[in-house]
Design goal:
By secondary structure, the chain is of the alpha+beta class. The chain contains 7 helices and 6 strands. The relative contact order is 0.15.
Length: 229
Amino acid sequence: MGIHTRAAAVVRGWQKFAQSAPITSWGNLHIDARSNGTLSIHVLGISTTGNAAAAAAQLESFVGAKASTRSITVKTHMEAVRYLGGGTTSPRTGFQAGSDVLKGPMDAATITALLGAVKAAARAKTPASAIIDPLGGQAAKQPSGGSSWAWRSALGVIQWYSSAQGRTAQTFITNGHRAVRKYSAGGYVNYVENGRSVSTYYGASLARLRTVKKKYDPANFFRTLYTLV
């Protein structure tokens, strides 16, 4: 089995895990470009049951192969919050980012294209990552009265990251968008991209948000590059 085939198996297995794992388990998928032109793939996971090994084994069963390495630690709730949040003294770093909300599990061709986008960055020695955060759990629950979050049924959010600057980083992000276009429902508003339509961030909720803003902020006091008026 070639490296690309194994990488695709991990993505497929992670998609099954994201759909089937109990609410006590969570894991996001990291696909990183390496400077030697190859990919590094790993899952950062959490289990609230106290048995992380069982959660890791469940993911491996979906992938159909054991991980090359495992690292398991036990943390308190606050320790986990600090770790996942980058600590309390993380240095500032610059990067460009974009996003795609995945409507559902990607097919084989789309997975191949996604891996190809990161591999192309690796070959160009562009520092780049595609990080897929699963949705579900509380994010999938529709609160009474509705909400502005338009992607309750989505599988997850891809974050396209590059610490390169300018056109180099944008090429990677654009290639990423193109790779998963078939399964993209829109974007995540925390990763606003220059030139992207505001409607892609709010979907069917945009009309309601415009109505609410007009009522409570008629003078447009709160405004950004992407205004709702």
